[in-house]
Amino acid sequence: MSNAQPIPATPRVISPSPTPSETSEQTEGYFTRSAARRSRTKSPQPDTIREEKNKDDSEGSDSSLDKRARTRSRSPILAQADGVLVNGTTKPPRRMSGLTSRTSTGVIKKSEPLPTKHTVGLTNGNALPPQVNGHLSPYSQIKKSWREFSRSPSPLGLIPLHRHYRYLIHKHEIPRKALHVSIGFLTLQLYRAGFQTGAITPWLIGLFIPIASVDLLRHRYPTVNRFYVKCLGALMRETEVDGYNGVIWYLLGAYVALRFYPNDVGVMSILLLSWCDTAASTFGRLYGRYTIRLRRGKSLAGSLAAMCTGILAAWFFWGWLAPRTGPFPDDPVGGFMFKGVLSLPEKARELLGWSKEASTITGTTAMAVMSITTGLIASFSEFVDIFSWDDNLTIPLISSAGLWLFLKAFGS
Predict the structure, then answer these.
(1) Burial state string for 387-411 with b = 16 or more CB within 10 A and e = fewer than 16
(2) Cβ contacts of 214 within 8 Å, gap of 6 or more
(3) Which of 104, 204, 287, 288 has the fewest CB atoms lying closer than 10 Å?
(4) DSSP per position, 39-106
(5) Helix (H, G, I), strand (E, B), or coil: what is residue 234?
(6) pTM of the predicted model, to two decimals?
(7) What average pLDDT score do residues 40-48 get?
(8) For the chain, what are the domain ranges?
């Protein structure tokens, strides 16, 4: 008797043989697909690099060095405030603008010294132990690399006020620049009051001697240095803590410009020092990153700012203030070089065959030429570096000499 429902056929069984890729990874016994998948996810181990030893001392260096990967830097890693460093696997992005702040997770603050092998247990072979003498910080041991830590003019950590007012005092130097600019307005006020340059230079020497003496004294005694920094830290740069105060060079440069040059040249040199240097520093820090870098610490933005400020200062002084001031009874003979007239030297006129009238400019044209020349001299004196002297000394020296030579050649 036959069954109404047909009997199903016997199913065909396929043995779980491994795939070709799994077969190549299989060593012995059965190899499951899950195990093969885990094996494939593992990164392959790099081949061992064998060192080559020179058979002769005169042969070249080890060629295996070319095969090695770059060694990891052993310098301290500065993490962001919200970044976490876990077993050296997470490397936070490097900040070029300065040190980052420290939180409770162990990130470095701007105001704190860099970690060394004495603080963190790292050994980099280069960092020296910090020397504590009241104010000198570990940054003084790293003379060439402090610009990598901060874009401000000096490393942070020496003066307490610079830590509390980082933007007002440390980065933008507002109190220092305010004092710098005020010297120019004081010079104009003394000029309007009829003070001669010969009457001002003794006061400059009278200020120079005690300030320089105190500066020498504070570098000899750390207690005096601490008190000095505590009182005048807002007007100082941190590089002046273990260096000389810029006021010394300011007074010396102003003395030379007012003592050995005519009144208008000396006054204009002080204005260029007071205003052009401040404008170059301000605009260079704000916009220098967007322009060409002329040399270390000098950008095209700062040089253009110094030139424009010099042009405006010359136009204001020679074009507006000087004609409306004086004359005074005690004015020296020949105390004013620029009188609104510029002409070619006599030898140049003879060479070109021009008459004196044809080679002479007056009025607005002469004022424009004099202003542009003053701006160029101001920009050059602010840009140039002479034996790494302080710019408070070089700017009045170069600008007064440049203006005197120009007016000696082309002035009437």
Answers:
(1) eeebbbbbbbbbbbbbbbebbeebb
(2) 224, 228
(3) 104
(4) HHHSPPPPPPPPPPPPSSTTS---GGGGTSPPPPP-SPPPPPTT----TT---PPPPSSBPPP--TTT
(5) helix
(6) 0.62
(7) 52
(8) 98-121+157-170, 174-410
